[in-house]
Amino acid sequence: MRVPYLHKADIEAAANELLMSYHYKFGMEEAPPVPVEEILESLLGLALEFDDLDALLNKKGVLGATWVNERRVVINEMLDPTEDPSVEGRYRFTLAHELGHWQLHRHLSFDEDGQTILCRSKSKKDPMEWQADCFAGYLLMPKKDVIRSWEEVFGTHDPYDASEELYNMQSRFDEAGEASEEGLVVDLARDLAEVFQVSGLAMQIRLVDMGLLKLR
Amino acid sequence: MFIRSMREEKKKRDPAYSLRKFAEAAGISATFMSKVENGEFDPPAPDKIKKMAELLEVNSDELLAMAGKVDPDLSGIIRDQPRAMADFLRTARDLNLGRKEIEALTDKLRAERGLDPSE
User: Going from the N-terminus, what domains does chain A have, and what CATH number goes with each?
Assistant: First the structure.
């Protein structure tokens, strides 16, 4: 299947539009964290479920799946934040990723039997997965909210050069002889991640992308 | 299951009825709630179902019955007056009293004793 090329700006616009329609319909606070569950369930009216996706799809490492025709999103029960609060960030990102598939890909034609399932696994990085990840970042960390939080915390627009901090972290890790699977996250990204309820790494990637954080 | 369709009806107008908020308000995990809605798990304990009925603004005895349960306070009522109360209920059943008749009877008793009419 051919996945049309989408520019980052198009994906960001699609994420902002979805968020705006939510606030237009339901009002509520326009401060982070972004209400991803409410967008999925109330605005789009999709069914949300938790289940053992490994068993259901007979496949390992699937974090979320969307059955387009059934208007149903299933999240791996390993990511249920009401059972394990430490997975909150990864849960929200997975949900936002599935929303990305819904907004960007549900109209694409899939296999002929009409059973359209879109999955998110850890490893796969085809264009569709990349686009959905990109969408998730924009939806969970909208530009204006990130800038506002940055100003509130640091009192300035200026970017922060974290290359030295990162270098020190890196050498500490090297001494310990263990490489971090998730990558190294600077304190500042970790702090802002709390506000947006995303993982430290997702926050850091967003800040670098916006030019607010320099890592090298 | 019926709880899902009731909740989905509500959630489209009110984001407070999201799976997670609803599960948390009922005092269970989102996964548990999801599997109850799927029919994969048996319905939870009566107190959780009563809480759900309250959240969904439906009659709790009706919701309990749909889940194949009765309110524990009812078995207490029967235990307190085992012979008379059981006889009372069986008589109503043997006479094939319909909903309207039972309600009329209840309202009559309530009126006689100066209680507000039942819902």
Answer: 8-140 (1.10.10.2910), 147-214 (no CATH)
Question: Between these two residues, B60 and A177, which has the higher pLDDT value?
Answer: B60
Q: Using only C-alpha atoms, what is the Rg of chain A?
A: 18
DSSP string, A55-116: HHHT-SSEEEEEETTTTEEEEEGGG-TTT-GGGHHHHHHHHHHHHHHHHHHTTS---TT---
Q: Is B19–A37 a contact, with Cβ atoms under 8 angstroms apart?
A: yes
Q: If pLDDT is split at 50, 70 and 90, which confidence band does B12 have?
A: very high
Contact flag A47-B4 (C-beta cutoff 8 Å): yes
CA distance A88 to chain B (A): 12
The closest CB to that of A42, out of B11, B31, B35, belongs to B11
Asked if A189 and A198 touch (Cβ cutoff 8 Å), the reply is no
| Range picked from A57-61, A122-126, A166-170, B31-35 for highest mean pLDDT | B31-35
